[in-house]
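Lab notebook, bench 4. Still working through the backlog of constructs that have no structural model yet. Next entry is a single chain of 354 residues. Request: give me the C-alpha cells for it.
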Amino acid sequence: MILSMRRLLNRVRRRRDVGLAAVFAVLWVSILGNATTFFLFESPMQPELTIGDSFWYSIISITTIGYGDFSATTLGARIGTVFFITVVGLIAFTSAIGMLVDLIVDFRVKERTGMLNLASKSHLLIVHFPSEARVRQVVEEFVSDPNHRQDDIVIIANDLESLPFSHKNVSFVRGSPLEEETYHRASVDKADRAIILGTSYNDPNSDSVVASVAHIINHLNPKVRIVAEVLNPKHELLFTAVEGISLVYTMQMANNLLIQETQDPGVYRLTQVMTSNQMEGTLASTRVESPLSNQMAYTDVAKRLLDSDINLVGIIRDQVAHLKFGDLYPAVDDLLVYISSQRVGWSAIQNALA
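Model written out:
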C-alpha cells in the first residue's frame, strides 16, 4: 500500500515537472515573440530602440507592471502585444507563478514532515526520537562545542509526523531506521558521525534495534563514527561486527553515578561539568599521532601537562582504560583522556611537553 502511494506521488511529481517546463517554454516563446515583433515594427519609428529595450518592454508588460517608458504605437506591434502578451503570455505567467507557489508550499511541507532528500555534508545523524527533551539536549550539547557550532544535524525517526521543535542546525528525515532508502535521504554517504539513541528505556528490544541500525549505517558508510546507546551491558555481543563503534551504557552510568554521589558528595557536580560542552572544564580525548621526541613515562607526561592546565586522567590503549600509569609509555594510537578548559590537539600537547 505504501509502495503504491509512493509510486502514485512520483507520477504526480513527474507530470507536474513536465507541466512546469511546458509553461515556462510557452512563457519564453511569448516574450521572444513579442520582443521580435515589437522590434521589427517599432524600430523604424524609433531608431534608438534596441533589441534589449524590446525584451525589457515584453517582460515588464507580461508582469503587468508596465512602467510606460515603452509602448506599442504601430499596428503590427500592437497585434503582437495583444497575442503574445495578453492572450498567451499572461496565461502562461499566472500559471507559472501558481506552480512556483505550489512548489514552495510542497517543499515546506516536505521539509516539515521529513520527506525531503537532504544534501547535508559532514553532518551528525541522530537516529530515534525517544523524547523531545532528550533529543533537544543532545542537539544543544553538540552545537555548544565551538568546533561544531555550524554543523548540520539530521534526525531520523519513524514515529513523528513532524519535528516538534525548530533549530537552525537541525533537519528531519521521516522513515524507518531499518530501511536503506531512509539513510539515502539523510545523505548517510556524506555524514561524519552518528548517535543511535535507544528506542525507549522501557523497550526490551531497544539494544537489538540499535545494533541493527549500527550495522546498516556501518554498511552504507564505514567511515561514519558511530556512538550507540546500550541499555544492557550483556548485549555488547550484538555490536562486535561493527568496526570502530563506541558503546555508551547510559543506565549503568546513571546508576553508578547515583551510588558515587551517595558515598562521595560532590562527585556528581564535577561529573556534570566534565561531561558538558556548556560548562567550563571539559573531559576530552586526543589521540597520540606520533612518537614523542623525548621519551617519558605517562607519569612525567601528566606532571608536565598540569603546567598547561591539562589534567591527564587516563589512557585508553586497545580498548582498555589505564588510570594508573606506572611504567606505561606513550605509544601511537593511545587515547589521552584529560580535563581542560578547551580541547587541545596532539601538536599542542607535544608543545606543552617540549
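Notes after review: The two ends are 67 Å apart (CA to CA). Confidence is low (pLDDT under 50) at residues 1-6. Flag for follow-up if needed.
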